[in-house]
Amino acid sequence: PDIALQETEKFWSEWSDRCDREGDYHDLVMRSLITLKALTFGPTGGIVAAPTTSLPEKLGGTRNWDYRFCWLRDATFTLLAL
Fold first, then answer.
1. Is 40 helix (H, G, I), strand (E, B) or coil?
2. How many structural domains compose the chain?
3. What are 62-75's pLDDT values in tens digits?
4. How many CB atoms lie within 10 A of CB 48?
5. Per the domain annotation, does 63 fall within a domain?
6. Do the domain assignments include residue 16?
7. CA–CA distance, 63 with 82 (Å, rounded to integer)
8. What is the pLDDT of residues 12-30, one digit of tens each?
9. What is the pLDDT of residues 29-61, one digit of tens each?
10. Domain boundaries, position 38
11. How far is it, in rounded angstroms, from Cα 38 to Cα 36?
12. Fewer beta carbons within 10 angstroms: which end of the chain, N or C?
């Protein structure tokens, strides 16, 4: 676990260091970029469509939607932000 944590910290530090945005909103911009990057599905690069709404309304109920797919609109806005 310690090695995995170190590798994770290294990845995110190196990734976020590539952003050259400076100014009053640097921390907010970085947090937003990290969140968008974390919502990216590695094998395909697709952006997770709705990470919070994919929870079932009721276990075993009829309103258990599948939000694992990438929505083109969300992916476009994410790519523009990144």
1. strand
2. 1
3. 766 655 566 777 77
4. 20
5. yes
6. no
7. 33
8. 889 888 888 788 888 888 8
9. 888 888 888 888 888 777 776 665 556 667 777
10. 22-81
11. 5
12. N
